[in-house]
Amino acid sequence: MQLAYFFTLLLCIGRLCNGDMYMHNPRGCNNRLNEESATRTNNNRIFNSQNNNRGGYNVGDKNPEAATNQEQQYSMEYFQSSANVRPGTDSLSGRSELVVQWTNQHGCGGNEDTDPHKLNCNIVLQYLCQDDVDSAALDDGFTLRNGISTDSQNYNNIASTSTKADFDARKNQDAKVNRAVHEPWWSYDACNKRERNKGLFVATQNLEQRGAVSTRQNPGGDRSGWECPEDRDYFPYWHPTVFTDAAILAQNESMCEYYKQHSFNRAPKSLCVEEFSAGVRKHFSDYSTKESCEANSHSWVEYYQMLELAPKYTSQGDCEKDHGDGLSYKWGKPFDPNKIENHQPIVDTCFVQPPEIDCKAADWSRVNHLGNGRAGHPLNYTWVLPHYPSGNKKRCILRARYNITTDDYDPWNTFASNGEDKIQQNPLVDVAEGAQSLRLAINTAQFGRTFQDRTHVFKLAPRPSNFNADARVLNLNVRGKRGNIVQTFPAVEYDFYPTRFSIRKGLDYLHVQWTGSNTHKNGGPGGDGQTGSAGEGKANTDRHNLLQTIDTDVNYPLPWETMTMFKDATVMWVDHGDITLAQSNIEVFLATAGYYHCLDGCSKSLDGVGTPLQRTLDNANPSFHGIVVKFESTGEYYYICTRNNNFTNRSQKGKLTIKEA
After folding, report:
1. Are 30 and 161 in the same domain?
2. What is d(CA 387, CA 83) in angstroms, rounded to the nearest whole number?
């Protein structure tokens, strides 16, 4: 089966190595949950990362003790962009920006004649969001969750002739409330049943399954959570997917028009749908082309990706007119996971489309180097967080995929029909007449690869009513985990992130927030790295605070009386309920990670809290939802974490420049 040409783009090639793609802000899990070992327990817990077992960060804890249930886990919470945001433009108005940062081992970017690379690559950032639910109310349906067990969700195939009751019973029996969910059960079920794309180049690999669970990288059809392997290994995918495209950092900017045209954010994708006699959708059928679908009396249905529904517009005319809010409204069939989950028919309706995928050339990075890019800065992308007009809080995950091919063949023009002899498994080569042949080490399942990392669940909250709609919100977070460089690798040591950045006086808001774990012991088994978790304070724990210092060369904070960083700052929002945080107490709040709200005169003062804060912050919370401030004067300011600042560990410092608008 040779599908349309754009179905066959290969984005996955490379070789086996120690570590390949790791997100550091927001923290990537690499399939970790809360392990005290240096290696993760289950590398197929949620997805197939193709990464080293040592990578990833534990899920955050709300309290000074390790979480024992999902209610006690901490989810980072960022504010959405406002209705004034204009995605795809240079306007900063209304934006909420989250700087995504990662390392990728095999290099990326460049590949011009004057600056060659021996590989082709891109990096794809996608997200999945749904309306938030109270963590205590998590059920066994399609609710994004971290779980409290490192076991994978179950999956047992059922016959396509099964009844609706059988279908639901199988789904409900497989889904376990204590295990992580990043994709719905029905998505994997459809992937397992759907015929794979036989137009794809598979080299010498013998794909053992007929369904889309078998790819050249995954020939045995092995399962990782409820992830669809064909969707993981190729982009843009040719069927609907639950993931929304945020950005693609391409090998070359000339490819961007192609990606924009075929991203699910704008291009409709189709699936073969089987129905119950009552007209309610049963599940997606086995057929993957329009011809085979309709020949078997099923419906070939065209879906669109949606940000969320817009039910107040009840006709196509009202829906698709310019509403003056910068959003794109579409009339059609939205790929609605909630309706699919509940067997509800999807009919033409009004919905908000996601912003067009952002595409730019990937930054150049060195091959075999899990570190910064050529300019000396961490590899990063500034994600403009979406605006949801419903005003609902969302729970989300972020997926980052790193796709590489070598230059040994042309990945754009190599298909099943013409690629049989291009790459062989461990081929023999003759180097001279009459000489002994030599063998090349080529594994055709690994000569092209897709590596991946994902976050734990995080939240996107609507902006508070006192936020200016034109204000840009910037997020200041903490990356890294406890330990020195060889103990944490391929994760990183502690650092504020972004480490240095600028904001505009009066127009930009700064949201300070971080997360941490109580179980970063980094013990055995250690895999192929060093165990241990060097650091200060209570063993295994992450803790942070922020105090002004005079310069990055200085390892002491300023005395409280001389701190000026927040002297003209306005508190726009603060977590901890309805407290009012005076300007003069911002330093106290940040220095104690929210443990104290003031020096005196409030309920959480130094004298008002019964148990004093320990000097190494051990009884402070590892995660800090934080504070949002607006600065009313310009200046350059430096800050430090007092705990994570010794010779063994990274010097956790940062610089903030406040400039005129």
Report:
1. yes
2. 6
pLDDT per residue over 490-546, tens digit each?
999 999 999 998 999 999 999 999 999 999 999 999 988 899 999 999 999 999 999
C-alpha span between 531 and 526 (Å, rounded) = 5
- Is 275 domain-assigned? yes
Q: For residues 74 and 171, state if they share a domain.
A: yes
Task: Indicate if 90 and 199 belong to the same structural domain.
Answer: yes
Dist CA 314 CA 392 (whole Å): 21
Same domain, 329 and 185: yes
Distance CA 46, CA 34 (A): 14
Q: Is residue 355 situated within a structural domain? A: yes
Q: What letter does residue 553 receive in the DSSP assignment?
A: T
Please measure the distance between the N-terminal and C-terminal CA atoms of the chain and give it in whole angstroms: 57
Contact 282, 301 (CB under 8 A): no
Q: At 558, is the pLDDT very low, low, confident or very high (cuts 50, 70, 90)? A: very high
Asked if residue 115 and residue 9 are part of one domain, the reply reads yes
Helix (H) or strand (E) holding 380: strand 379-384
Q: The CATH number of the domain where 563 resides is what?
A: 2.60.40.420
What are the structure tokens assigned to 476, written together?
Answer: 């200041």
Residue 458 in any domain: the answer is no
Number of structural domains the chain divides into: 2
| Same domain, yes or no: 129 and 39 | yes
In this predicted model, what pLDDT tens digit does every residue of 52-103 receive, in sequence order?
Answer: 999 999 999 999 999 999 999 999 999 999 999 998 889 999 999 999 999 9
349 and 473 share one domain:
no
- Are 633 and 658 in contact by the 8 Å Cβ rule? The answer is yes
Amino acid identity of residue 607, one-letter, is: D
User: For residues 533 and 520, is the Cβ–Cβ distance under 8 A?
Assistant: yes
Assigned domain for 434 exists: no
Give CA–CA dist 232/237, Å, rounded: 9
Q: How far is CA 231 from the centre of its chain?
A: 16
Instruction: From 585, 583, 550, select the one nearest 569 (Cα to Cα).
Output: 583
The phi and psi torsions of 119 (rounded to 5 degrees) equal -145, 165
- 382: Cβ contacts below 8 Å, ≥ 6 apart: 97, 98, 99, 100
**Domain range spanning residue 253?**
5-412
Going from the C-alpha of 378 to that of each of 56, 249, 495, 587, the distances in angstroms are 17, 15, 12, 28
